[in-house]
Amino acid sequence: PDSCEIASTSSVILRVAVAAPLAGLFDYLPPAIPSDQALVPGLRLLVPFGRARRVGILLALATRTEQDPTRLKRIESILDTRPLLAPVDLRLIEWAAAYYQQPIGEALFTALPARLRQPTPLLDDRIQGVQVTPAGQHLDPATLGRALRQRELLALVQTTPAGIAMSTLRQRLGDCGGPLRALRDKGLLTLCYLTPDSSPLPPPLPEIDRPTLNPDQMLAVQAILDALGGFRSFLLDGVTGSGKTEVYIRLIETVIAAGRQTLVVGPEIGLTPQLRERFTQRLPGPIAVLHSALNASERERNWHQAARGEATLVLGTRSAVFVPLPRLGLILVDEEHDASLKQQDGFRYSGRDLAVRRAQLAGCPVVLGSATPSLETLHNAGSGRYGWLRLPQRAGAARPPTISLLDIRDQPLQAGLSSVLREHMHAEIAAGNQILLFLNRRGYAPVFTCHRCGWIGGCPHCDARLTLHLTLKRLWCHHCGWSQTLPNRCPDCQSDDLRMLGRGTERLEDDLRPLFPTATLARIDRDSTRRKGELDRLLGTVHRGEAQILLGTQMLAKGHDFPGVTLVGILDLDQSLYASDFRAPERTAQLIVQVAGRAGRAERPGRVVLQTRHPEHPLLQSLLRDGYAGFAAAALDERRAAELPPFAHLTLLRAESPQAEAALAFLREARVLAEGLESAVQLLGPVPAPMERRAGRYRAQLLAQCAERPLLQQMLAQWNTALRALPRIKGLRWSLDVDPQDML
Ligand code: ADP
Ligand code: ZN
Ligand code: ZN
To answer: DSSP letter at 128?
Structure first.
C-alpha cells in the first residue's frame, strides 16, 4: 500500500535475493564507504541477515522501499568484481522461481556452483592460453626431430597465432606440460591470457571421415540451421540409431563456426561417456562438462569456462540449463523424455521445459531429441507449436530390431527364463553373438519371508519391503536406505526356515551361471557399479566381446550402444503394466523401446523377446502393432478423454510429517484456503501418498488440476502466499510440485 511507501531521495535501495528459503527480496542500503565499483544486478554481496551474514545477489536498484527506511541495513561488501549472472540469466531464474513457486533466493543459488553460496572469492577465471612467438611462428616443426610431442604441440599452436586456450590444448593433446615447458625454454611459445571476446575460434580438427548425411538427416539439419538466430522449438523424433547424435554434431559445428556456444542438456551425463567421447573427437572444443559426479571445484571451474564464453560446447545434466552463456546460439535436449530431467526435490524444475523457456529468452532454437518422445512434446509437435523432424530409419546399414511377445503362462521357467528364450540364447552364444537381459529390479530377492509363520521383512520406517542383498548379507530398504544384517531366525517365531521370493539382478546372475557355464556374464546395475570406474570396466568387457551375457536394470536402457548384441530378453515387466500412476504406460513403453534399441546397431540385426503373462495387454499390443508412434497416439487419446496432461495442467501439494494425521490435516486446511480463491482450478484429495510412510514420515497429497495453465499459475501464486502465511506446524513439511512427474 502507498501509505507505507516512503520515497528515499537520499539513497538508492538495493533489492537483494538472499541464500535462504524465504520468499521475496530484501532491501538494503549501499555500503557506508562508497566503492568505485558500479552496483549492477547479478553481483554477489555480503549482507547482514538477522544476527548472521549471508551471501546475496543484487537483483534490482530501487528508489523506494516498503520497509521502514530507518531500519534498513547497509550491505557489508561487494564480493566480486563483476556480476556472475547477466540480465538474461536473471530473467530465466526469476521466471523459473515464479513458475515453480520457489523462493527466488533458493532458485538463484541452485543455479550457481555450490561454493558460491559462501562468501568465498571466485576461482581465478582468466583464460590461460599459449601463444606462438615470432621465432616459433617461422620454425618448421619438423626441425624438432624426434621430439614428436613438441612437434605436434608447435604445429597446433602455429595454426592460431592469436593464442589457444590451455583447455583446448589439453582436450586435443592430453597432458602436455612437458613439451610445453620445453618449447617455452626454446623461446618458441609463451603463456598468455586470452579474453573471451578476443578469444579466436578454436583451430579446426584434422579432417576425419564424416558419414554422408541421409536425406532425413539433411532435412532435419537444414530446418534447424534455417532457424538459427531466432527462437523456434523442434522435436527431433528419431528411432535409436537413426543418427540423431550425428545431426547434433553437424549443428554444433556450424554454431561453433559462427562464434557461438551450444548448450546440450541430457540425463545423467556421467552414464554416457560414449556421447562425450564422440563430441570430443568431432568438435574443436573446448567442451565444459557439468554433472553431479564432478567435485565442487571441478564443477565451478567448468561453470566459469562456460560463463565467460570460453567453452564452445556445454554438456550437462538438468542444472546446466541455468549456466550463463554469453554467446548462446543453440540448445539441444537429449533424451528429452527422461524423468531425470525433472528435479524431484527442493526446487522441482524441469530442465527440458526451462530449456525451451531459455531459448525463447535468448532468441535461439531449441531441439528436443528422443527415440521415445514424451507425450507432452509429441502433443506440442502435433499441434504445430514445435517443428517435427523425423528420422524414421536407422542410419547406415543397421536394421531395426524385431520385437515379439513370449507368453510365459504355464511355461516351465529356469532362472525366470522360458525354454524358448533359453534356446535362443544358446544359439546366439554358439554363433559368437552377445545377449542383453533386462530385469528392472536390483538386489537378490525382493521378498524375504518366514515359511512357518509368514513373517515378511519390512522396513521399520517405510511402507515397503526390504530387498535381500546376498553378497552383502543384508536386507535393504530401497526407499530410505535403511538396512539390517540378514537374520538367521524369524524374529516372530524363531523358525530357521527363512526363504527368499522373487528375483533381482543379483540372483539372476547366480541362476544363469549353471545354465550357461561357458558364458561370461556382465551385470550392470547400481550395486555392481558403485565403485568408481567399475561401470567403464564392465562396459569395456562388453564392447571387447569378452562378456557374452549382459544383464542389468534400466541403467542399460540409457545411452549405451551394444553393437554386438543380437538378442534382447525383457523379463518381468508385467508389474509396471498395471501400476497406478497415469504415466506408467508411457514410461513402460519408453523403457521397452529404449532397451530394444540397444540391440543390433551394426550390420547384425537384433531380435527382442518380451516375456509376459499378459500378452493381450492393449499397451503391448499397440506397441507391437504400431510401434512407439502408434502407442503414443493411442495414449494421447486416452489422456485427452481423462483430462490429464498435456490436456490439463497439474500441481501436487505434498505434505509430510512424523505424526500420522498431521499431513492430511494440513492439506484439508490447504484445500479450504484454495476453495476460497474462486478459480477454475479443480482440487482432488487430499489423499495419503501411494507409499504413505517413507523414512519415518507420513505423506499425503492434494492435486490441483486446470485446463488453462495461466489460470492455474494465477491460483498457485495466491495459494502459495496463503500457505506461507499459515502458522508453522512442528515437524510438518510441505511443497508445491508444479507439473509433477510422479505421484509417489
Ligand atoms: P542416435 O543418436 O539416433 O542413436 P547415432 O547418431 O548414434 O544415432 O548413429 C548411430 C550410428 O550410425 C553411429 O554409429 C553413427 O556413426 C552412424 N551414422 C549416423 N549417421 C550416419 C549416416 N548418415 N551414414 C552412415 N552412418 C551413420
Ligand atoms: Zn516365522
Ligand atoms: Zn525404508
So the answer is: E
Q: Which distant-in-sequence residues (6+ apart) come within 8 Å of 187 by Cβ? A: 133, 135, 136
Exposure letters 339-353 (e unless 16+ CB within 10 A, then b):
ebbbbeeebbbbbbb
Tell me the C-alpha distance between 199 and 280, whole Å: 20
Which is the closest atom of ligand 1 to the Cα of 242? 3
Close Cβ partners of 391 (under 8 Å, ≥ 6 residues apart): 216, 217, 220, 236, 237, 238, 239, 242, 243, 244, 247
3-state helix, strand, coil in the chain (%, to 5): 35, 25, 40
Could you tell me which of 150, 202, 196 has the C-alpha nearest to residue 176? 150
CA nearest neighbour of 268 among 320, 328, 322:
320
C-alpha cell at 5: 511507501
For ligand 3, the distance from its centroid to the CA atom of residue 320, given in whole angstroms, is 31
What pLDDT score was predicted for residue 510? Answer: 95
State the Cα–Cα distance between residues 159 and 272, nearest whole angstrom: 32
Task: Give Rg (Cα) of the chain.
Answer: 29
Stated length of the chain: 744
Mean pLDDT, consecutive 10-residue segments, the chain of 744 residues? 42 89 88 80 92 92 86 90 92 96 91 85 71 88 88 88 81 83 89 66 67 95 97 96 94 94 85 77 87 83 90 94 96 95 93 98 97 97 97 81 90 93 95 94 95 96 95 94 95 95 95 95 92 87 92 84 90 86 93 87 80 92 92 94 95 95 96 92 94 95 96 96 93 96 82
| Confidence (pLDDT) at 129 | 83
Q: Rounded to two decimals, what is the model's pTM? A: 0.88
CA distance from start to end of the chain? 42
Ligand 1 pocket at CB < 6 A: 211-214, 217, 238, 240-246, 395-396
Of all protein residues, the one whose alpha carbon is nearest to atom 11 of ligand 1 is: 241
Q: What distance in angstroms lies between residue 390's CA and the mean position of ligand 1's atoms?
A: 14
Q: Which residues surround ligand 3, an ion (CB under 5 A)?
A: 459, 461-462, 477, 479-480, 482
> Which residue from 246, 274, 334, 370 has its CB within 8 A of the most atoms of ligand 1, so it is best to mutate?
246
Judge contact between 135 and 154, C-beta under 8 A: no
CA-nearest residue, atom 9 of ligand 1 = 243
Could you give the CA distance from residue 603 to residue 623 in angstroms, rounded to a whole number? 24
| pLDDT value of position 369 | 97
pLDDT at 436: 95
Supply the pLDDT for residue 734.
Answer: 96
Q: Separation of 591 CA from ligand 2 center, angstroms? A: 38
690 preceded by a cis bond (ω within 30 of 0):
no
Q: 563 Cβ partners below 8 Å, 6+ apart? A: 601, 602, 604
Q: Return the ligand 1 atom nearest residue 371 CA.
A: 3
Provide the 10 A C-beta neighbour count for residue 659.
14
Q: Which atom of ligand 1 is nearest to the CA of 563?
A: 14
Give the Cα separation of 320 and 92 in Å (integer).
13
Identify whether the C-beta of residue 190 lies closer than 8 Å to the C-beta of residue 133.
Answer: yes
Q: How far is the CA of 394 from the centre of ligand 1 (A)?
A: 7
Q: What is the pLDDT of residue 156?
A: 87
